[in-house]
């Protein structure tokens, strides 16, 4: 049973526009969420996180929104740049646990 | 420079052979993790360690073994019992602050291929 779901395997956007990546979770005990960015043949790099006491966290061009009632979070990238082209993983953890549960990832392509 | 290093970048395994993947960190992190990534899949946790000389199984520990004799090192052995070892292996570490959720930081990965 997949506890963290990224239902869109891929997304294509034009440079300068907004990219919206979505993530749904089923475990209501999750209270910390992270987004990682991964280039081929490299390890994931941490992008942004949000705790369940917030509904929004912003860092430069990246904003994560959390809707606890819908068990849904999204990552917004504005404006999108070609260098943002990568696979984005959503991850979740509960109660200070060290274990992260990852989604399958969404491949973002930003076209010049 | 602080970071996590994994070696080798590529590793080939013959049938019936055990191979060991190296992971070293100089971030002074207490916790370390091993994940496996398959094409089109998310990262799945193999083993993790919160402190030296202690480790726990993750979701897919069968066919793998680990040791944590030093804080900075967490080697993963892929044994002959692992029937489908071809994958991209990622090591991660995080600080261990009680009551706080800490971000995990990843190494560059090792790709294991079976001959």
Please tell me about this protein's structure.
In chain A, strands 2, 4, 5, 9, 10 and 11 form a six-stranded mixed sheet that branches. Chain A is mostly beta strands and 112 residues long. Chain A has no helices and eleven strands. Chain B is 0% helix and 49% strand. Chain B is mostly beta strands. In chain B, the strands form two sheets. In chain B, strands 2, 4, 5, 6, 9, 10 and 11 form a seven-stranded mixed sheet that branches. The model of chain B has no long low-confidence stretch (mean pLDDT 90). Classes of the chains: A mainly beta (112), B mainly beta (115).
- Percent of sequence in beta strands of chain B: over 45%
Oligomer: heterodimer
Helix content class of chain B:
under 10%
What is the overall silhouette of chain A?
globular
The value of Rg of chain A in angstroms is: 13 Å
What profile does the largest beta sheet of chain A have? Answer: 6 strands, mixed
> Helix amount of chain A, in percent?
under 10%
Strand content of chain A: over 45%
Outline the low-pLDDT stretches of chain A: none
Give average pLDDT of chain A, whole number: 94
Largest sheet of chain B: 7 strands, mixed
Note the gap between the termini of chain A. 38 Å
Helix/strand structural class of chain B: mainly beta
Write the H/E string of chain A, N to C: EEEEEEEEEEE
Count of beta strands of chain A: 11
Mean pLDDT of chain B: 90
Radius of gyration of chain B: 14 Å
Low-confidence stretches of chain B: none
Most extensive interface, chain pair and sizes: A-B, 26 and 32 residues
Summarize the helices and strands and which ones pair or pack.
The complex is a heterodimer of chains A (112) and B (115).
Chain A: E1 4-5, E2 10-14, E3 19-25, E4 30-38, E5 45-51, E6 56-59, E7 62-67, E8 72-77, E9 86-94, E10 101-102, E11 106-111
Parallel strand pairs in A: 2-11
Antiparallel strand pairs in A: 1-3, 3-8, 4-5, 4-9, 6-7, 7-8, 9-10, 9-11
Chain B: E1 4-7, E2 10-13, E3 19-25, E4 31-37, E5 43-51, E6 54-57, E7 64-66, E8 76-78, E9 87-94, E10 105-106, E11 110-114
Parallel strand pairs in B: 2-11
Antiparallel strand pairs in B: 1-3, 3-8, 4-5, 4-9, 5-6, 7-8, 9-10, 9-11
């Amino acid at each position: 049973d997949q506890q963290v779901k990224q239902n869109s395997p891929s997304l294509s956007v034009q440079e300068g526009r907004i990219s919206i990546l979505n993530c749904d979770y089923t475990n209501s005990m999750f209270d910390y969420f992270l987004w990682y960015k991964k280039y081929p043949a490299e390890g994931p790099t941490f992008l942004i996180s949000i705790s369940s006491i917030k509904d929004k966290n912003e860092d430069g061009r990246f904003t994560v929104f959390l809707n606890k009632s819908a068990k849904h979070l999204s990552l917004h990238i504005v404006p999108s740049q070609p260098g943002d082209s990568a696979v984005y993983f959503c991850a979740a953890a509960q109660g200070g646990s060290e274990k992260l549960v990852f989604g399958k990832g969404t491949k973002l392509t930003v076209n010049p | 420079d602080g970071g996590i290093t994994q070696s080798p970048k590529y590793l080939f395994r013959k049938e019936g052979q055990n191979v060991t993947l190296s992971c070293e960190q100089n971030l002074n992190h207490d916790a370390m993790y091993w994940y496996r990534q398959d094409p089109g899949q998310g990262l799945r946790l193999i083993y993790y360690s919160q402190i030296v000389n202690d480790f726990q199984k993750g979701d897919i520990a069968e066919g793998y073994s680990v040791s944590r004799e030093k804080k900075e090192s967490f080697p993963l052995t892929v044994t002959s019992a692992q029937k489908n070892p071809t994958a991209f292996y990622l090591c991660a570490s995080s600080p261990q602050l009680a009551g706080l959720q800490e971000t995990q930081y990843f190494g560059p990965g090792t790709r294991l291929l079976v001959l």
